[in-house]
Structure formats: C-alpha cells, structure tokens
Amino acid sequence: MKIIDILNQNRFSLSFEVFPPKNETAFVSVRSAVEEIAKLKPAFMSVTYGAGGGTSKYTLDIAKDIKNRYGVPTLAHLTCVSSTRETIGQKIKEMQVCGIKNVMALRGDIPQELQDADRSGWDYRYAVDLVRELKTADRDFCIGGACYPEIHPESANQADDIRHLKEKVEAGCDFLTTQMFFDNNLLYNFLYKIQQAGIAVPVIPGIMPITNANQVARAVKLSGSFMPQRFKSLVDKFGDDPAAMKQAGIAYATDQIIDLYANGIKNVHVYSMNKPDVAEKIQANLSDILGK
Ligand code: FAD
The whole model's pTM is what? Predict the structure, then answer.
C-alpha cells in the first residue's frame, strides 16, 4: 500500500520508525524488536538507511520482513550522497524486486572526509536529484522527503531552506516527514510558512520520545532541536532515575501528539528507535483517539 493513500484516509494514525542492525550479530535482536513493533499494526513502519554510521545493506531485509511477514506497509529510506548513479540504480532495482512501494528519498549527511571535496562532479548533490531519479517513467514509487521545522543546519536561513524544499516537492515528493521537534509551536509556524510558499503535500510530524537523559544531548546535537524549559525540567528532575525518566519522556511525547491531533494533524510518525515498549505505551496512551 502506498503511504499517500494512508495519509489521504483522513483518520488519526501513528507510524513507527526502526533502524537496521549495524552487523549480522545484531540482526536477531533488531528483527525481534521490529516484530514486536509490527504487531502493534501501525499505519506504516519506516526503516532508516545507514544512519548512525552503520551499514545500509540490512535496510531492505528489514523492510521486506515488515511488509511480507507482518503485512505492515513499509517505507524504505535511501540516501544518495556521494553515491554513483550505478549504485543507486542497483538499489532501486532491488527495491522494485522486493515490491517496495514507498521510498524516503534523502541526501544523507556529507561524510566528514568529504566535507571539503569538490562536489560539482557528484551524481547526487541533494535529495532532489534522487527524487527525480525515483520519479522516472518505469518506476511507480510513493516518495517521501525530509523537512526541517527548525531549518536544516546547513541552510543560511529559512527562506532558502523552504525554497529548496519546494523544489524537492515539485520534483515528485508525495509527502514530507519532519525532523524531530520538542515545541509544537515551531511546527505550526513552519506549516504556515510552507503553505504560504505553495507547498501542499501532506506533512507528517516526527516525534522522538526521549526516554533517557543521555539521549537528550545526542538528540540536540543530531537535530539542532530547541529543548523547551518544560522538557529540561523533566530531565533535571528524573534524569538520574531511568524508570521515571522513561515514563516522563513517554508522557511528554504523548502530550505533544495529542496537541498535534487537537490542532488538526492526522498522522504522526514516532521515532520509536527499535523500542517496542515505548511504541506500545504511546499507542496505548492514544487508544481512544487513534482512528478518529
Ligand atoms: P536535502 O533535501 O538535499 O537538503 C540538504 C541541505 O541542502 C538543506 O540545507 C537544503 O536547504 C539544501 N539544498 C537542497 N537543495 C539545494 C539546492 N538545489 N541548492 C542549494 N542547497 C540546497 N539520514 C540517514 O543517513 N539515513 C536515514 O535513514 C535518514 N532518515 C531521515 C528521515 C527524516 C524524516 C529526516 C528529517 C532526516 C533523515 N536523515 C537520515 C538525515 C538526513 O539525511 C540529513 O538531515 C541530511 O543532512 C539532509 O538530507 P535531506 O534529504 O534533507 O537533504
């Protein structure tokens, strides 16, 4: 099933994200976490690609499992930075063979060693190049793109960032998923601005439940997200008590999601980070709202 058809159902739904194992040894534990999350029957599940420095070869294996064994619609991520057309062409073929219908088209982070490289000869400089490639005639993918309510860290300003986002959408993105954010007002402001810019595809807010104190610094470093004082107080109070911090982080994420729903958002993507218990608790907290 295509993600865009799920989004158009106009019913409140949750989707969950998982990441692939970094090596064969971790495959079994990741697969079991994925299975637990899939059993919750989310609207769809996304599988990241090579994030956190891991290899990318397991993305498709996990995505196939989710789709074929558990019957959950699947979104496979694909990054293109510093890849050749040949490599990406091969990955796209593999996706087609596996029956993957939904692809999150990403540039990816520029590796440290290539930061100063001359990029003029690269086959893919930005995600928009991958979107165009996925959109060619013999391919029938539903394509997602990433967007940044608090601006992508490489952008000089929000106007430029939104201009590039519009170009990406016009190239063929069917929907967008946001970077994590911890203050919903930043999202509402962003949605207003992109609507003014003429971007009309559905936007799925991405919510990251922070369930331990160490995650906070990592999340801020990776995403550059603003941490409201209300959230910092939770970490100050519960940071040294893992069980309490987990409960408080899940409550905070739930509260964000309820506020999004109350303000007209129909689909929320949860960065569940291979944690079935977190996914399950958030879903249970929303049990009387889901599907409405
Ligand atoms: P782009 O859309 O190419 O944007 C990158 C920067 O380039 C932005 O500043 C943009 O404004 C600018 N830009 C775009 N087009 C142009 C242009 N024509 N001229 C000049 N500037 C331009 N990373 C992974 O490695 N694996 C994953 O699975 C993964 N999943 C993600 C999922 C989501 C929902 C999000 C939000 C991020 C994800 N990331 C993932 C991180 C992502 O790869 C990085 O944030 C990366 O730095 C940018 O990727 P992008 O696709 O947003 O790039």
Answer: 0.97
